[in-house]
Amino acid sequence: MEPVPPSPITWPDGGGLTNEWVHGLMSSFQWSSWNLPPSQLPSLLPVSVFDSLVLTASKILHKERNCVHIDGLDSESNVVVVGDIHGQLHDLLFLLKDTGFPCQNRFYVFNGDYVDRGAWGLETFLVLLSWKVLMPDRVYLLRGNHESKYCTSMYGFEKEVLTKYGDKGKHVYRKCLGCFEGLPLASIISGRVYTAHGGLFRSPVLPKRTTRGKKNRRVVLLEPEPSSLKLGTLDELMQARRSVLDPPWEGSNLIPGDVLWSDPSMTPGLSPNEQRGIGLLWGPDCTEDFLKKYELKLIIRSHEGPDAREKRTGLGGMDKGYTIDHNVESGKLITIFSAPDYPQFQVCIFTPSIIAFS
């Protein structure tokens, strides 16, 4: 016998979410994932409720700084950092139940890539938004490279939303894109741990200006040479313009793209990330410089699953869900990945990882 379907979700009077409401949302999404075709999701989550949740969460997210500082932890506090989830709703629900739901002494930092490549990206993102609204100073949602128009149009999220919401799908998709723009780029936990989806970033350098042509002279912007790349500062990160649908790969606003798309390397220095066409590669010397300058002990990033690491030499594989990529004098750089069935439904099961510390 099929379980009794839950009632359609309603937005609470006054707009204040409760623990009961958030748990009800998770239970409803779990039920619908097992019992409803995707196109029937609006019968459970009306567009009006979606709008209210995304609007409320967006107002909170847009007020946060590019790099959120998570302070005020005491001896009873613990912090859980979660890597890529990629629409794997059931694994997110298990993670929250198994590790412990957010509460007064349990902080969560989600390191981006909530959507694409999994069947339940929308539900996954909305569950996280509901926790953000309920506990805004205990749950932190950072942006990943897949929280962009380009990636979601290429890797499944746009199609997922249009399938689930039909003629209202474009509206739902646009609202999600607007919410993505408000997601912070990085976090610093207790002044000791830096987290970001991709990692480190360059100091912005304005392109050089020159002119071409004698009769019709026009200004041409020349991109800086790779040799001029310099590690960026936290002040520069704070000043970057993050509210863009797609982080640019050229121009003066390169920090968002670097933070979301960059990868570590065993080669010293900074260099363009030619394989991705955006972002940087940075070496152990850059990790050491960044840790030492800001008196940090650890950098946690995500962004690379087992498929990505198979193509890169000199760095550890992701079959255990994490790797220690740089082990330098001042601390470590760790990559974590939290989607165990990736790419989903291709029988590529591996051990997912999170990082929990007190």
UniProtKB/TrEMBL annotation:
Q: What protein family does this chain belong to?
A: Belongs to the PPP phosphatase family.
Indicate the segments forming the Serine/threonine specific protein phosphatases domain, all copies.
142-147
Q: Which PROSITE patterns match?
A: SER_THR_PHOSPHATASE (PS00125)
Instruction: Report whether Nucleotide-binding shows up as a keyword of the record.
Output: no
Give the matching SMART domains: PP2Ac
Q: Which InterPro entries match?
A: Calcineurin-like_PHP, MPP_PP7, PPP_phosphatase, Ser/Thr-sp_prot-phosphatase
Q: One matching Pfam family, short form? A: Metallophos
Q: Could you tell me what reaction this enzyme catalyses?
A: O-phospho-L-threonyl-[protein] + H2O = L-threonyl-[protein] + phosphate
Keyword annotations for this protein, in alphabetical order, are: Hydrolase, Manganese, Metal-binding
Q: Which organism is it from?
A: Arabidopsis suecica (Swedish thale-cress)
- What GO molecular-function term can you cite, just one? metal ion binding
Q: Which cofactor does it need?
A: Mn(2+)
Which top-level enzyme class is recorded in the Swiss-Prot or TrEMBL entry? hydrolase
For this protein's source organism, the top of the classification is: Eukaryota, Viridiplantae, Streptophyta, Embryophyta, Tracheophyta
Protein known as: Serine/threonine-protein phosphatase
EC number, as in UniProt: 3.1.3.16
Membrane-spanning segments: none
